[in-house]
Model the fold of this input.
Amino acid sequence: MANIELDGPNKKIKVDSGDLTLDVPGDIILDADGGDVVVADGGTNILKVTNSSSDVVLQPQVDAKDIIFKQYDGTTVATVEDNGTFNVPANKLAIGGTAVTSTAAELNIMDGVTSTASELNILDGVTATASELNLLDGGTSVGSSITLADADGFVVNDGGTMKTIPASDVSAYAGGGWTKEFESTLTGDTNGTMDITTTALFDGTYDYHCIKILRCTPEQDDQSLCVRLKFGGSFATDAYYRYHMKLYDENSDSKGQSRSTNRSSIDACSGMGDATGESANGVLYYASPDETTLLKPLYMRFDYVNSAGRIAESSGVGYYANSNGALQGIRLIMLSGNGSSSGGGLGDITVAGYGLKK
Done:
């Protein structure tokens, strides 16, 4: 049987062998007015529990030693190391019951990140794949060639805001070549009129414009293609048109025709044939259609087969002298038989419009 000795002078309870068990019906309270409870082993202090302004301080008493937390089976779950590190074994950290699977190296990527919560939340709606994001990573790999179309997209920095814009914006800004604005086959009119009013051709997006007119054929032989211009919402029909035109055919260097008197339209191509293969092809050029302080001269050139079956050419320039407002449209009409359903009409015409920046 072990002996228990109360050492009053040294303030000790001594047991000469075995363990000492304190078994009481209530709680065991260690009340140290000095503020420290020290755990020792063989006279060497191992751990001190200290009251620091009611904060509890656990402090090892042997230098270069750790505080280790273990499960019942001996598995280490956390270590407070001597160097101040709180070390949790891999795959042992959970927050709110959810395991943290990131490695320390992965979490360290965030070290030094200065993004705000709002900035990071932007990523919450990102649907890009890794391959798509890797396109921004540089490198020397280049994809296969494609044929760029106006609807294809480019990513640009617009004053600090990243936007995707159509390729047509790039070509419009860069200039240096004609940009097709539209192409369409316009249905012919037996009354001999055809209107070209596509917004892109007249809204001022480009400085210069070209309209190609292909396979223009009258419904009757020996007709003249003429032009009227639209200002203020309607086509001008009064006699304020002026023009100068030159005619040539294969039998003559010049059949010269020059008119400058006020007319109700501009002659663009005279004496057109209506037979198969006698269609006319031509171009109309004009500049700054949205300008409101200048007259709008129209340059014209047509190649065709005339009513005599001869190759012919006409070229000239004309304008409407009674308005310097914004040009809003171009009307093609037939001079002879215009307004009659029985003659002077137009067949279907393919029209293409182009723009050019300075």
